[in-house]
Design brief:
The chain is mostly helical. It contains 18 helices and two strands. The termini are close together.
Length: 419
């Protein structure tokens, strides 16, 4: 596609700018992950400094997740109406500024409010980045690009851990939140180097010229009700089901596996650190492996295999008794259960037509995130009544359930989203 001048924009050649778009999306996701890890690291320090009880500390995290879940319903329509680039820049600046302001919080409620507001920005980053990558990359590369973005998550964790190790001991817990302002690096990079989505701009031209759908580009203005009409309803329900399965199993496992390994398998703090490191190394490798699988063999086989394999490997892992076996199996667990997430952004966003891609992706992911917010609480209740082993066994079933939704979704590895 050559560059085409419109009244206000230039439609860029996606092949020329795809790597810059990928770099911007990876940077955004790194700072997204950093923000979540900053909170995890800050909570124990705040418990000690402010004398918070665990319920109050948990409310800080809940406020963040709740804000992020609600925000998905806002940012999706905004991305469809105002463009991917503008809304992604606003998201990054939003949560960067409000996370930094958390460093000035003087009491518990002040921090809860600021974390809720920061969560509103966090809730849009993944959604808009997914649409942006889908619309810059050709079908045969899209899953690997999506997986490359996802691999920014452990890098964001590492950045937060570096701040915690080198700045917090000298300057205090506030430095964790102040580091959130680094997300402006991604916002500035996207503003300077990444053009607006070619598919989105082409849809605006079609709409202005009254052209009906070309390829899978629909020209009418998107609304939430469009997701309930015709074939969009089936797409929306299946996309939501897959997102819910991925998110509920992720948070269910992530919240309780450390407690299970500590209480039931006797792993100490040092062993837990090794577990986390190997888990994330395995996940980083898995993202890229699954991205290649999804581009070569298809998105559906990626999620059918990944969902079933995740359920199986979890059952195996939590039933190991040797500390050495548990430690090294963490890498396998990370590779299998984190890796298949990699192509999720591509697969979900490819399901929807261009004009409702932001709305559809936002609804599926935000609704799945809303359901997943209950996962740690429900799993904790099951663990209290029965056992952690039974709770984690249920998580393995939810992992496998994702294969059912993937089976009924359409294959999209050859879908072209730019005319």
């Amino acid at each position: 596609m050559s560059q085409v001048m419109t009244n206000e924009n230039i439609i860029a050649d996606p092949q020329k700018y795809k790597w810059k778009a990928l770099t911007g999306a990876v940077l955004g996701y790194i700072f997204d992950a950093q923000d979540f890890m900053v909170l995890a690291l800050a909570i124990p320090l705040l418990v000690a400094t402010w004398g918070l009880d665990l319920a109050s500390a948990g409310l800080i995290a809940t406020a963040t997740i709740f804000g992020a879940a609600l925000a998905g319903y806002v940012w999706g329509p905004a991305a469809d109406k105002f463009g991917r680039k503008k809304t992604l820049i606003l998201c990054l600046a939003w949560f960067g500024v409000f996370t930094a302001l958390c460093g000035f919080a003087t009491d518990f409620m002040h921090l809860v409010v600021l974390r809720f507001i920061a969560g509103i920005g966090l809730g849009g980053e993944w959604i808009i980045g997914a649409a942006l990558i889908t619309e810059f990359f050709p079908p045969q590369e899209r899953a690997r690009a999506s997986s490359a973005v996802q691999s920014g998550w452990p890098l964001g964790y590492a950045l937060a851990l570096g701040v915690n190790a080198y700045l917090v001991p000298t300057y205090g817990w506030q430095m964790l939140f102040f580091s959130g302002i680094l997300s402006l690096i991604a916002a500035i990079y996207i503003g300077v180097f990444v053009p607006e989505s070619p598919a989105w701009l082409k849809a605006q031209i079609n709409k202005a010229e009254g052209i009906e759908a070309q390829s899978n580009t629909v020209v009418k203005v998107a609304s939430w009700t469009d997701l309930l009409k015709g074939k969009n309803l089936k797409i929306t329900l299946l996309a939501f089901g897959l997102c819910a399965s991925c998110l509920v199993s992720y948070w269910g496992a992530g919240s309780w596996i450390p407690a299970y390994l500590s209480a039931e398998r006797g792993l100490d703090i040092k062993a837990m650190s090794g577990y986390m490191m190997i888990l994330n190394i395995g996940g980083f490798m898995g993202y890229h492996a699954y991205g290649l699988l999804a581009d070569k063999l298809g998105r559906r086989v990626n999620f059918i295999f990944g969902s079933i394999a995740s359920g199986a490997v979890m059952i195996i892992w939590v039933n190991l008794s040797s500390p050495t076996a548990i430690l090294w199996m963490a890498g396998v667990f990370g590779f299998i259960t984190y890796g298949y997430w990699g192509p999720l952004a591509a697969f979900i966003s490819e399901q929807f037509p261009t004009s409702v891609r932001g709305v559809g992706t936002a609804f599926a992911y935000a609704s799945g995130r809303m359901v997943s917010a209950l996962a740690p609480f429900i799993m904790g209740g099951i663990a209290a009544k029965y056992s952690l082993g039974i709770a984690l066994g249920l998580v393995s079933v939810i992992y496998a359930l994702g294969a059912v939704f993937a089976f009924f979704m359409r294959e999209t590895k050859d879908v072209v989203v730019v005319d």
